[in-house]
């Protein structure tokens, strides 16, 4: 299978072609303000580098966040457009799943802005909590409360994602690694054994826009 992978949930724009579990082309661009400008050119370059024609793609995988509204909208709309135009399925994944390394108890953390973080907890690669959004000072207490009954003795041994935001989490003293989604990890996080459902962005916040009082 030739799979196009796209993610715009973090400051990095990720595009790549994965064939039978191996990355054959990958383009990464680190600029939180350039998602809209660079994504399609990166996809086109990946197709050229891999020697895969668009018509030879079998599926698209796209990160659905959590992430900022504008970034997610760019990636998901682009991925859905490619899939629709080619008549192939588009699989949405939780972008944090592509950051977990699948070993032991771990925490994945990314920037949610507004002095908050997106996070999820994993045990041996399986998400046991999240995705969620909270202030860094509240993350460990939330995990303790939510996982006490379902996941015994959850104790993260390491954390991955945005290093600067991991460092802000109160009470978390573990080895930390700066990572962004990769095409291969995204494809590994997708579930191809079932039909893809609708793409649902994981904003995790209510919209900022409100209906004016005069229109209510």
Which properties best describe this structure?
216 residues, alpha/beta, five-stranded mixed β-sheet, 25% helix, 31% strand
Helix-strand topology string: EEEHEHEEEEHEHEH
Rounded to an integer, what's the Rg over CA atoms?
18 Å
| Main β-sheet description | 5 strands, mixed
Beta content:
25-35%
Shape call? globular
Indicate the low-confidence ranges by residue numbers: none
Based on DSSP secondary structure assignment, what is the total number of beta strands? Answer: 10
Straight-line distance between termini: 51 Å
Strand order of the largest sheet: 3-2-1-4-5
Count the helices. How many?
5
Which structural class should the secondary elements be placed in?
alpha/beta
**What is the helix content?**
25-40%
Could you report the average pLDDT, rounded to the nearest whole number?
93
What do you see in this structure?
- The chain is α/β, with parallel strands linked by helices and 216 residues long.
- It contains 5 helices and 10 strands; from the N terminus they run βββαβαββββαβαβα.
- The protein has helices at residues 35-50, 69-86, 139-147, 163-166, 183-189; strands at 2-7, 12-19, 22-30, 59-63, 90-93, 105-113, 116-123, 126-134, 158-161, 175-178.
- A 5-stranded mixed beta sheet has the order 3-2-1-4-5, with helices on both faces. A 5-stranded mixed beta sheet has the order 8-7-6-9-10.
- The protein is globular.
Layout of helices and strands:
Elements: E1 2-7, E2 12-19, E3 22-30, H1 35-50, E4 59-63, H2 69-86, E5 90-93, E6 105-113, E7 116-123, E8 126-134, H3 139-147, E9 158-161, H4 163-166, E10 175-178, H5 183-189
Parallel strand pairs: 1-4, 4-5, 6-9, 9-10
Antiparallel strand pairs: 1-2, 2-3, 6-7, 7-8
Helix pairs in contact: 1-2
